[in-house]
Amino acid sequence: MKEKLEELQRSIVESQIWKSIFRVGVPNTNRKRVLAMLGNVVLHLHPVKTRKSGVKMRYTWCAGGVTFFLFLVLTFTGLLLMFYYRPTVEYAYVDALDLREQVPFGIMREIHRWGAHAMVIAVWIHMFRVFMTGSYKPPREFNWVVGVILLVLTLLLSFTGYLLPWDQLAIWAITVGSNMAGATPLVGTQGPGSALLKIGDIPLVTSSNDARFALLGGRFVGAGALLRFYVLHCVGIPLVAAFLMAVHFWRVRKDGGISGPV
Fold first, then answer.
1. pTM score, two decimals?
2. Rounded alpha-carbon distances, angstroms, from residue 110 to 83, 101, 113, 117, 245
3. Does an H or E element contain 117, and which?
4. What are phi and psi of 69, to 5 degrees?
5. Residues 140/253, Cβ–Cβ less than 8 Å
6. What's the alpha-carbon Rg for the chain, to the nearest Å?
7. What span, in angstroms and rounded, lies between the C-alpha atoms of 187 and 228?
8. HSE, side-chain direction, 13 A CA sphere, residue 199
9. Are the CB atoms for 130 and 144 separated by under 8 Å?
10. CA 86, CA 248: separation in Å to the nearest integer?
11. Where are the beta strands (DSSP E) in the chain?
């Protein structure tokens, strides 16, 4: 039993997934201890070696930096909007109108709205550049996965923010989007494989516990969905995105700066 556990541990440590995340491994030698110190983000923010091309403003358009700048703009304008917006069915639509026409610095809502659209475009340009330069290959595959997760979070930020104006366009757009969630494999009532999950004749996935219900907090787009989207848009997703951005930047620097062409 002990030998099997040791073999399993060795296979995990020697796998590409483990090495893409933990470059040094267990620091049980002097060389590994030195590499662990140099790889520490607190003690050594800068990489040991940086290529000259990695610090130049080139044809990459700095799309990643533009995306981060837009994230900061959206965070700042979003905080200001939170002072006036109330995520309830009674006030959401009126507050959205007042934010544009009555509240001082009402332009903040337009900056927030158009900044969100620009961030989605900038992320796609950044991902396209990274893909075309082959930067998803070792040793950057872990950072590529982090970037893909950040792309998904950006789309989720845009999706959850779409409902907050609480007008007809927002309600029906989220209705269509949440219906798509109901077709998620295994966890959506309309998705493939969900009918197989049952005990006897009792299905485990129903319309009251599937992915669509979890997203909306109910069976239709209502007050529960508005509050749930508001919390996800203002707190949950931004915190996760900020944490992954820190990891993303750290790995970019530790990998020698911005990647060049293949």
1. 0.81
2. 16, 11, 5, 11, 25
3. helix 107-132
4. -60, -45
5. no
6. 23
7. 19
8. 1
9. yes
10. 33
11. 198-199, 202-203
Q: Which residues contact 107 (CB under 8 A, 6 or more apart)?
A: none
Amino acid at 121: I
Residue labelled with tokens 């239709």: 220
Count of residues in the chain: 262
Residue type, 82: M
What are the tens digits of pLDDT across the range 26-53? 777 888 777 777 766 566 666 666 666 6
pLDDT in tens, 180-196: 988 888 888 888 888 88
CB 251 within 8 A of CB 143: yes
Q: Is 28 helix (H, G, I), strand (E, B) or coil?
A: coil
CA distance 163 to 166: 6
Q: Are 166 and 226 in contact (CB under 8 A)?
A: yes
Name the helix (H) or strand (E) containing 11. Answer: helix 2-13
Residue listed under structure tokens 């969630």: 181
